[in-house]
Amino acid sequence: MADLNWMANMVLTYEDKELQSKALSAVPIREITEKASRQLRDQQREARDLKRNIEESELYERFYLNELVSWFKNEYFTWVDVRNCKDCNIDMVFIRKYNKFGTTKSPHPYTVEVYECSMCGLNAEFPRYNDAHMLLITKEGRCSEWAQVFTLIVRALGWRARYVYDVTDHEWTEVWSALSKRWIHVDPCEGLVDSPLVYELGWGKELTFVLAVSCDDVQDVTWRYSSNHKSLLARRLPHLEKKYLNSILEIRKRLLANKSPNKRLYILKEVISELAELMIEPKANGQYLGRISGSQAWREARSELGAQSRKGYVWCPLKNEVEQMELVVRYCTSKDIYVRDERGDEGIFFGWNNYTFNSSNIFRKEEKDWKMAYLAKKDENRNGIISWKFDLSESRMLIKTVKIKCHCFVINEGTVRIELESDGFPMIKMENVDYFESSTFENCSTFTMTAYLGDDLKSNWQHSQLFRQPLDSLEFPLIIKLILKPQ
Questions:
Q1: Which of 42, 131, 187, 217 is catalytic?
Q2: Is the whole model's pTM more than 0.85, yes or no?
Q3: Residue 355: CA atoms inside 13 Å, Cβ hemisphere, count?
Q4: Which of 182, 218, 394, 435 lies 20 to 30 Å from 251, alpha-carbon distance?
């Protein structure tokens, strides 16, 4: 059973001003603010061009959170599966763990994992600190450490924040949006914002209890993370439900005792409002991917690859796209967003990998010196693969024409091979093309575009790039446009 008292005490340490100051000193606030502001200006300009309204404050908040998560995941914190032997350049093997009950480094109890190199016999330790002071120094860990430090940083930036614990073994953060009056799911390990159903529908988790703890309150928020409340309820053991409820009420009473009467009333009203919200079963609004943090072997051992991780995201036409006989998806590398035409705020999709059908050995690179962004392959010894899929079958529409803008950047031995295919139709293969238009796939209901980076396995990873553009660019180096027609 989760120790809610321990979590409540841990979160209270995040109110320490000295600790918050230390956390803030690591955050590139100016850079994050500039990126979020630039994205908002881009959307304002596009909204004016398309004569549509946008909620600017909420959109900026979302841009800021996305930039904060992106920085934390890609530049600040490091994921640890196992220790690596630097002498032999191989992953070590876990052999044991033991508990430490406070040291001069960290006064809080923590677990230490011990790893051994199978070649040279060297041992290495991985301390699982529960002390934010130490984690700001080590800047490494798994989901618990990531959630602890990210929650602290959010508090230091002035937002209300919760540390969220899923008893099936995962942690993340919730951030209070004063604009939309709700708690927003943020998973720094996955780089996700406001995607609460990902664990159930993407990872394939069977959730039971998800508990959120802040400096003001503690709440059972499991219902926010499930689209099937009936099945969820059947999995919750009554005796555990009673124990958690008693713990929540006890901790809430203790936390409220230190608040002013007005503050207590405000928090209790908020609790009631949230409970009413949690009674409404959330609906899935797309397809969800399996877990991406950690190695594939580690994720597979935890059964968190998810069924969706094998087939990924599929773009399907919406009502207005059917009416206009056109489905257009654009991707901007500098902002790391997809934009779907004519959809206002709802037409913005964050994160290159969240909306691909498949990707392997691909990452997004930002060059701080050259001020460029692009997609490239991670491992030089194998090619990178990325694909996008479209399915019109449920809309009763067919493809008439395919138009693709796909900016490729290759040097020396680098190659970018593009393959276009649809069920039952010949595959089209091209190399290093920037624009393609064809009616070859006319009367098809599905369409997949796949890019292979660096077929020559000896080529440098930088020699084969997709969608390279300046960090301040407003262009879309990928545009996939399907002209539609009725069946």
A1: 187
A2: no
A3: 21
A4: 182
